[in-house]
Amino acid sequence: MKYLPKLTAMALSVAMAASLAACSSSDPSASPAQSAGGDTGTQGGQDSYTIGVCQQMQHEALDAATQGFQDALKEKLGDQVEIKVENASGDSNNCNTIVGSFVSNGVDLIMANGTTALQAAASATEDIPILGTSITEYGVALGLNDFDGVTGFNVSGTSDLAPLDEQAAMLQTWFPDAEKVGLLSCSAEPNSAYQVSAVQGYLEERGYTCTSYTFSDSNDLAAVAESACAAEDVLYIPTDNTAAQNAELIGNIALAAKTPIIAGEEGICRGCGVATLTISYYDIGYATGEMAYEILVNGKDPAEMAIEYAPQFTPKYNPAICEELGLTPPEGYEAIE
């Protein structure tokens, strides 16, 4: 489809600002924030806002991002904002239904948590501002050629992409004597394929033989994971929603085979991995909430807002799985609690 930016900037009301200033100087009942000229959360905006959140599925990382998003907006807007959170349970048809309902009800903004949710939202409306989070690569997710960090239409948001070259280096640090690496991911998630392709290149440069193992959904995941664990010295699992939702299942299979896993993010690592280079999903969700505030209250245009990335990445290890496999973490790794 052709995307055209249609969101127009909301102008600040000089008259309202003057009225508020007069109130703060003459009304003894004005709040301290108003008296000090503080942020009341209404400049240039409207009295209340309704936001629809479509979360692709339920697992630790996406839950944290949704919570961060809500916390940011509640802190800035309080009772002025109503946030409707709907979970699609990993079903793309559910994403379409949820987003369609948001559009029909005329929400002020849609937050899409997960790639499938973002794709559904972008297909449903060219008018309502859309912010994504937990999206690895927006160009891949939205089929954009020569993506430069700004979409040019009604979509922006935050990315959960960690440095893939550093994840490959992490695998070599932990398993320098391994020869064969299995790359396990869901074929229905385009951003997983993007990560696998990049990491495979970095690993092959380091001398590893790599094999990709893809599952279509949770129904064939166990069989594919068993094959991968039986054939490979170590597995790499990228940031992948279906893998995250089934991390404990993968972990049980991998531990039985004594096959270690390097994971793309902390939630997956907690369930099945030995180590990860991870971000805070709460933080990127919170940053997405701040972007939503800028759009709703200050009139920012998502077509011109650059995708934001996590500011830091933390190497972590899973103490329980490391103990089970007899592995000692290198220096500088933080234990997952």
UniProtKB/TrEMBL annotation:
Domain of life from the UniProt record: Bacteria
SUPFAM superfamilies, alphabetized: Periplasmic binding protein-like I
Coiled-coil segments on the chain, per record: none
The keyword Signal appears for this protein: yes
Annotated Pfam families: ABC_sub_bind (PF04392)
This protein's UniProt keywords: Signal
The keyword Cell membrane appears for this protein: no
Position of the signal peptide: 1-21
PANTHER family found in the cross-reference section: ABC TRANSPORTER, SUBSTRATE-BINDING LIPOPROTEIN (PTHR35271:SF1), ABC TRANSPORTER, SUBSTRATE-BINDING LIPOPROTEIN-RELATED (PTHR35271)
Annotated protein name in UniProt: ABC transporter substrate-binding protein
Organism: Pseudoflavonifractor gallinarum
